[in-house]
Design a protein that fits this description.
It contains seven helices and no strands. With 169 residues, the chain is mostly helical. The protein is flat, with a radius of gyration of 24 Å.
Length: 169
């Protein structure tokens, strides 16, 4: 590409940046305002997906485990399709569980956010939303650890017991 063509292309692109500037400003403002919430929901989605995958591993592990044979983690992962074919893992049930958790988490966090806004209005700092988010994230973490422990992953057994003890104290 010649310098003149390059310069003309840059000039055209720069002039188009100003087109619909009002819409771009409003859209970017809305996106910036929602960034925290989108990030929070995305992180919860990731936690729930990890929880579901570890549940699949646990169910597959228990499907191929016998009195004489304890499968490894890799064998349990490889057995997921077999467990699915046998109906032990149900896509419909997992989908309902996933969507249900997301809806509950969004409602709880929104309620916590509203309560924090109310307390901030009376010149106090917000406490409820961080508490809700921390509790929900910790319960997902515990579920992931329990799933791995139930799948026979010995490396997390002591961690599962520790997390349960800390949760009770």
């Amino acid at each position: 590409m010649e310098f003149d063509q390059f310069s003309e292309a840059i000039s055209k692109a720069a002039s188009r940046l100003g087109n619909y500037w009002e819409v771009k400003v409003i859209a970017s403002g809305m996106l910036a305002a929602a960034q925290f919430h989108l990030e929070l929901v995305s992180l919860f989605v990731i936690l729930i997906v990890i929880d579901l995958v570890t549940k699949w591993i646990e169910l597959a592990h228990n499907t191929i485990k016998t009195d004489d044979y304890t499968p490894s983690l890799v064998e349990s992962i490889k057995a997921i399709p077999q467990a699915h074919r046998m109906g032990v893992i149900s896509s419909k049930a997992m989908k309902v569980q996933f969507c249900g958790k997301i809806i509950v988490y969004v409602i709880v966090v929104m309620a916590g956010s509203i309560m924090d806004t109310m307390t901030e209005q009376v010149h106090r700092f917000g406490l409820v939303m961080p508490l809700c988010v921390s509790y929900l994230a910790a319960s997902e973490f515990l579920s992931i650890i329990e799933n791995l422990d139930d799948a026979g992953i010995s490396a997390v057994h002591n961690l599962a017991a520790l997390v349960k003890r800390k949760g009770q104290s």
